[in-house]
Amino acid sequence: MNYPMALLAALMLLTGLTAKAEDGYDLWLRYEQAPVELRADYNSQISSIAVLGQGATIAAARQEMATGLSGILDRTVTVGTAMPRGNALVAGTYDELSGLDLESADVGPEGYAITQMRRNGRVLTVIAAESEIGVLYGTFAFLQHLLQGEPIAGMELVSRPATEHRLLNHWDNLDRYVERGYAGQSLWDWHKLPDYLDPRYTDYARANAAIGVNGTSLTNVNANAEVLTPQYLEKAAALADVFRPYGIKVYLTARFSAPIEIGGLETADPLDEEVQAWWQTKTDEIYNYIPDFGGFLVKANSEGQPGPQDYDRNHADGANMLADAVAPHGGIVMWRAFVYAADETQDRAKQAWEEFVPLDGEFRDNVLIQVKNGPIDFQPREPFSPLFAGVEDTTLMMEFQITKEYLGFATHLAYLGTMWEETLDAPAERTGEGETLTVTDMMVSDNDDYTVSAMAGVANIGTDRNWSGSIFDQANWYAFGRLAWDPEQDAETVAREWAAMTFTPEAEFLDPVVEMMMGSREAVVDYMTPLGLHHLMATGHHYGPGPWVDDLGRPDWNPAYYHKADEEGIGFDRSSTGSDAVSQYAPFLREQWDDPATTPDELLLWFHHLSWDYEMGSGRTLWEEIVFYYERGVQKVEAMRTTWDEMAPYVDAERHAQIADFLAIQEKEARWWRNACLAYFMEVSGRDLPDGYDVPPHDVDYYKSRHFPSAPGNG
Ligand code: BDP
């Protein structure tokens, strides 16, 4: 360092300029100093602190407690290892805490109980769990309670996850490209692994443990067999070692043709004994590297990926072969239901159901069928996938997409908690006794400690300093974890928690911001695909509108296939007079959705092709209604911008400005969506806009002429 540099560094130290910038890196682990009155309460309640026990997970809990409380209390907090004195906070397993004669709460293998008690004139705040991971989860819950500005006095909290497997799915390639990634490169620096362990791996694990995520599938579902070679297994094992103390298991995607590509076999036929033996040996090898390896995630016979059907076998044959290989080690196979065959001409929305329902009961117990929330593909709104009520003897799990491939990438603010809540709570089935079962109810776990089998979220995480490409996209990662832990949790509570910890717990900030978040996904639906429209995005990268596209290789890649607009009307007829996809739902839904008069507006054009003059419940014609929705979407974004501008006093300048800029992009693009779609529908329908609406500033040809060959996320 030369002299002026040294001087500058010294100056920066003195003036505090080296203090970390508010760039979003800390996520929900932003342990800022609590307001003075709260700190007084906290200090009096917990004058000494200990985390009892010895394992690596306990060490992580102790470290987190020290870091968290030092920040919140604004002093150096030491966390002891023995029962503390005075008013104290103590965390540990029930075994470690046996001296306290606690009544053990029903916390299960991963849950925790936080409670306060009086002992010999002192107040003890106790975090107790059956397991070390429960202690870590309890530690995070305790810190989050403080970050949300709550008092410690009277704290009572019992929580255990409903869902057994709570996983992120990274669509990350080995060259660090992230498919549908809008937040930089893959976090996994394969080239430097296993020798260099980026500290971000630990922070990734902390952030996930803080929201209860307990598994991560490292690699893209469009898989590369290379990751199953020893060279890469060693690297994956190094990541697994970092994640283990945080309760996170590693999973890998298995390319079905791996026996040919890296095994030198001539076939990957799942009924071939050599192939089966190859997978068994390969799996044993993986478990040598990663003793607690979680299992495989597989995309087979979908969008050109290899699979059992290449050998005239079915999905059960393929999944069971892998399931048998991991079963002796306690592993699972998550076999994706996102399939649509290359030569299939019928309604794509029906295909997964048709392929999987006939196989009901044929999958091994350790196979979970991973179903996307909707029957098409992560659209801004879809009805839930009919598979969720289609099978009885197959374990189903949910796949949500956290990364916003179809909801504006990283720059549009769309809080997805509401979308996932809508799916999880959707009535899916009715029992003989007339009881209504929700989608969540259909993902039954066969492990008695849990009620729900598994939930996966396609991650929105990358090397961007803020991890998710934007601050508000962090909320989606957060919400995924919280809803996976408890699918009955309401999206608004989750939004509130997140906003309090990410910014400030002040009500003057939280009330408007949470309201903005709660309406944000619906705004996107309005300006992209209102009233049940879907897949109008430009093809390939899916950036921006492309409702006119109708010339791609196969019909169901074209937006025009999904909206079917012509001079007469618009919408995809999936009723009994059309593709009859409606028949895949339970009778009570089938009945409701088969008739446009009883179909909710949100799903109207998903299930019906209707005249532009169709009269809506609002009194407007369908055409007027479509225009009204597109316009409303833009207006909602304008309102979001106003709300955010008013929040400047509560948010640091750096994050406030970035969010404001992104909202400006969102408004510009919402307008683009509105104008392009309306210009196109005006042309197709031969109609003008109703009075009072601005005519799109350009004709359709202009919108068609816009190309974005390098838009992110598409290879
Ligand atoms: C689609 C994505 C594609 C994925 C595919 C999948 O466009 O990149 O590979 O889903 O889920 O939404 O397999």
Automatic annotation (TrEMBL):
Limits of the Glycosyl hydrolase family 67 catalytic domain: 148-467
Catalytic activity: Hydrolysis of (1->2)-alpha-D-(4-O-methyl)glucuronosyl links in the main chain of hardwood xylans
GO CC annotations on file: extracellular region
Alphabetized UniProt keyword annotations: Carbohydrate metabolism, Glycosidase, Hydrolase, Polysaccharide degradation, Signal, Xylan degradation
Pfam families, A to Z: Glyco_hydro_67C (PF07477), Glyco_hydro_67M (PF07488), Glyco_hydro_67N (PF03648)
UniProt-recorded name of the protein: Xylan alpha-1,2-glucuronidase
Species: Aquisalinus luteolus
Gene3D superfamilies to which the protein is assigned, alphabetical: Alpha-glucuronidase, C-terminal domain (3.90.1330.10), Chitobiase/beta-hexosaminidase domain 2-like (3.30.379.10), Glycosidases (3.20.20.80)
